[in-house]
Amino acid sequence: MVLDLFAGPGGWSVPLHRWGIREVGLEWDAWACRTRAAAGLLTIRTDIAQYPTWVFTGRVVGLIASPPCQAWSMAGKRLGLLDQPLVHRAVADLAAGRDTRASLLAACRDERSLLAAEPMRYLHALHQSGEPEWVAMEEVPHVLPLWKQYAEVLRTWGFSVWTGILNAADYGVPQTRRRAILLASRTRTAAPPPPTHAAVAEPETLFGPVRDRWVSMAEALGWGATDRPVPTVCAGGGPGGGPEPFPSGSRKALADARDRGTWTARRDSGLVLASRNEGSGWAERHGTRENRPADAPAPTFTAEAHRWSWSLRSNNQSNATVRPVSEPTGTLFFGHRANECVWEANAGDGGAVESIRITAAEAGLLQTFPAAYPWQGTKGAQFSQIGNAVPPRLAVHLLAPHVGRTLTRDDLTLAA
């Protein structure tokens, strides 16, 4: 089997399940476990720090680990950075067969910090029986020094190991989500998967496959397609031409407009995304705002009096990044009120701004989960699951070499 620690709602599991590979996920969150059950994924609900490792020995071909990132993430208090020396000590002790977690946990400022050392407890136990064959781990970029410590240990156990930072957008995820990755194997040379996408599409060459342009929000959400148009906003009012652009918080208004709206190309307005920590002016720095393709989707307007643009604001901070729909989102954060995502309709020139909260289905698509993924729980629980998950399309690229899978177009269209 493949053992998936901190399995969440199934970001790693989606490709494994599709490929018919047996995976067992360990997860504590009740709603994530219910989502996994609804998706047909085998799950043990447990506290990973307390679960015995011996039950898996002799059975594991691959180990996956994505420890909770809240203690280390830019979206949280980042107490994990202060606890990092304690986590390094825990990893070193566990690699030597010494369990000092109880005393180290008492000294941690965030009790979640030490969870990043748990994969080593499982790896040490499995190593005694020559397992696993391969390892794949993912976390926020600040955890990279810890992954390098893991790599040093794994190399002494006969693994080839690669660690580094990968941008999910380079692998077809409509999100510039940077993550620290560890890949290790006993049977092959560990290396990062070749990127399939780039900020600018590459011309064909004689030296290998070209990279497509980063997948945009519009592509991921199907906006601009005939079967799922984005709303047409009429000058002077809402979708029906009424006095208000959109009733505050009205998801129904957006849905009704979407049913009868269309998209056409305009260079002076667009659907844009406000993201958390990458700062305003991202598009200008990358030269994409002025050089937007002429066929980039944007709302259709029935008159020149009002020019509406749509934004996805992922927090209430003043430095939120604003990107047009022809680009990927920034990293999506959920689970805190400051990171609540809303679509904003902005009239420009100091006009009104109306907000409509993003749906879990939309957020799931931006994270490359299948369109009909069976999210369970309250809205807050669903958003938390999505924000913490590994994008399945990134997982496809990371896992395929380990399981001997040659990727096909079907593998790369998980959201279909």
Automatic annotation (TrEMBL):
<keyword id="KW-0808">Transferase</keyword>
<protein>
    <recommendedName>
        <fullName>DNA (cytosine-5-)-methyltransferase</fullName>
        <ecNumber>2.1.1.37</ecNumber>
    </recommendedName>
</protein>
<feature type="compositionally biased region" description="Basic and acidic residues">
    <location>
        <begin position="283"/>
        <end position="293"/>
    </location>
</feature>
<dbReference type="GO" id="GO:0003886">
    <property type="term" value="F:DNA (cytosine-5-)-methyltransferase activity"/>
</dbReference>
<dbReference type="GO" id="GO:0009307">
    <property type="term" value="P:DNA restriction-modification system"/>
</dbReference>
<dbReference type="Pfam" id="PF00145">
    <property type="entry name" value="DNA_methylase"/>
</dbReference>
<dbReference type="GO" id="GO:0032259">
    <property type="term" value="P:methylation"/>
</dbReference>
<feature type="active site">
    <location>
        <position position="69"/>
    </location>
</feature>
<keyword id="KW-0680">Restriction system</keyword>
<dbReference type="InterPro" id="IPR050390">
    <property type="entry name" value="C5-Methyltransferase"/>
</dbReference>
<dbReference type="GO" id="GO:0044027">
    <property type="term" value="P:negative regulation of gene expression via chromosomal CpG island methylation"/>
</dbReference>
<feature type="region of interest" description="Disordered">
    <location>
        <begin position="276"/>
        <end position="298"/>
    </location>
</feature>
<dbReference type="GO" id="GO:0003677">
    <property type="term" value="F:DNA binding"/>
</dbReference>
<comment type="similarity">
    <text>Belongs to the class I-like SAM-binding methyltransferase superfamily. C5-methyltransferase family.</text>
</comment>
<dbReference type="InterPro" id="IPR029063">
    <property type="entry name" value="SAM-dependent_MTases_sf"/>
</dbReference>
<keyword id="KW-0489">Methyltransferase</keyword>
<dbReference type="InterPro" id="IPR001525">
    <property type="entry name" value="C5_MeTfrase"/>
</dbReference>
<keyword id="KW-0949">S-adenosyl-L-methionine</keyword>
